[in-house]
Write a structure and sequence with these properties.
Layout lengths: L2 H18 L10 E8 L5 E8 L3 H13 L1 H11 L7 E6 L2 H18 L7
Parallel strand pairs: 2-3
Antiparallel strand pairs: 1-2
Helix pairs in contact: 1-3
Length: 119
């Protein structure tokens, strides 16, 4: 990925992360924008999000974000000086959840290991 595209992705991520906090849709829960991938021609963009809650809350939040994509695209157009405003889609990013699960498993292993120190 070029340095320019990395900067575009990060700029779009920052605008969307800020704009998501302004959304009033009750379906949208606690969302973290973990990353953005914009195509080199700036026509399409995928926004990766992490959602706090179960599967039902995740689906509702993604539906709320999809319905707000027009507002989010207008924020990008207004705040960033891009040749085109990308058409946004939203995808759940399981890496945060996977990281929490791995940390929990490691903590359980460490807790279950016998101590090397004599009593």
């Amino acid at each position: 990925m070029s340095e320019r595209m990395r900067r575009v992705n990060e700029s779009v991520r920052a605008v969307i992360a800020e704009a998501v906090t302004d959304l009033k849709d009750p379906r949208i829960g606690l969302v973290t924008v973990t990353g953005v991938s914009i195509s080199p021609d700036l026509r399409e963009g995928t926004v990766y999000v992490s959602v706090l809650g179960g599967d039902k809350k995740r689906k509702a939040t993604l539906a709320g974000l999809e319905s707000a994509h027009g507002y989010l695209q207008s924020r990008i157009a207004r705040e960033l000086d891009l040749k085109r405003t990308p058409q946004l889609t939203f995808e759940y990013d399981p890496t945060v959840e996977r990281g929490v699960r791995m940390t929990k498993l490691i903590d359980e292993l460490v807790h279950d290991m016998p101590s090397d120190e004599p009593d």
